[in-house]
Amino acid sequence: MIDEKGILFILSGPSGVGKGTVRKRLFEKATDLQYSISMTTRDRRPGEEDGVDYFYKSKEEFEQLIEENELLEYAKYVNNYYGTPRKYVEETLAKGYDVFLEIEVQGAMQVKKNFPEGVFIFLFPPSLEELKNRILGRGTESNDLVLNRLKEARKEIEMMDAYDYVVVNDQVDHAVSKIESIIQSEHLKRERIAKQYKKILEDDQL
C-alpha cells in the first residue's frame, strides 16, 4: 500500500485576477482538498469559529510564532496580523490530504522561501485590459487607487518566473479544470512516487 503524503498547492496572482472565485469553484468540486486556515489577531466576529474560519491569537502569541518561524507567511493589515501556520499545514499534509492556499503574490514569495516543496500556480488575467476592467468593475476605488493596483499588478506579473504553473483565468470553469489537472499530474510525478516504491521494494523481502 502506497502511503502518500499530501501536497501543498499555492494559488496566487495579481489583485483583481479572480483568485477567490476560482478557489471557491474548485472547492465545490474537489472534496478532498483542505483549505489552509489562516491565523489572525483580529477579533472573532459573530458566528465565526476558532479553527474553522481562522485560528485566533493574541498579538503577543502571533509575534512569538513569527520569531519561532512557525508561519509560512504573514502580513499586517490595519493593525492586525494574518498568516499561514506551518504546523497546521504540515499536520494536514502528513495525514495524506492536499492543502490549498490562495494568497497574494508577496505572501506566495514568503511561502516559497519557507516551504519550497510547495507547488506554485500563478493565475493570469486574459489581458492587462481585462484586469483593468475587473479592477474598475469593482467600482469601489478611486482612480488613484485603481492606477496603483494596476502598477502593482504589472510588477506582480513580472514575478511569474517564481511559479511552477501559469493558468489563464479566461473562464472560471476552464481555470478550475486546469488546476485539477495540475493537482493530478503532481501526484503522478516520478520523484514523488519513486520514494514510496523503493520503500515497498525494501519491505518486500523476495
From TrEMBL:
List positions binding ATP: 13-20
Q: What is this enzyme's EC?
A: 2.7.4.8
Q: Name one GO cellular component term.
A: cytosol
User: What is an example of a Pfam family matching this protein?
Assistant: Guanylate_kin
Gene Ontology MF terms: ATP binding; GMP kinase activity
- Enzymatic reactions: GMP + ATP = GDP + ADP
Q: Where is the Guanylate kinase-like domain?
A: 6-184
Keywords on record: ATP-binding, Cytoplasm, Kinase, Nucleotide-binding, Transferase
Can you say where in the cell this protein is located?
Cytoplasm
> Which SUPFAM superfamilies does the entry mention?
P-loop containing nucleoside triphosphate hydrolases (SSF52540)
Family assignment? Belongs to the guanylate kinase family.
Q: What does this protein do?
A: Essential for recycling GMP and indirectly, cGMP.
Q: What PANTHER family does this protein's entry cite?
A: GUANYLATE KINASE (PTHR23117:SF13), GUANYLATE KINASE-RELATED (PTHR23117)
The protein's name is Guanylate kinase
> Which organism is this protein's natural source?
Oceanobacillus halophilus
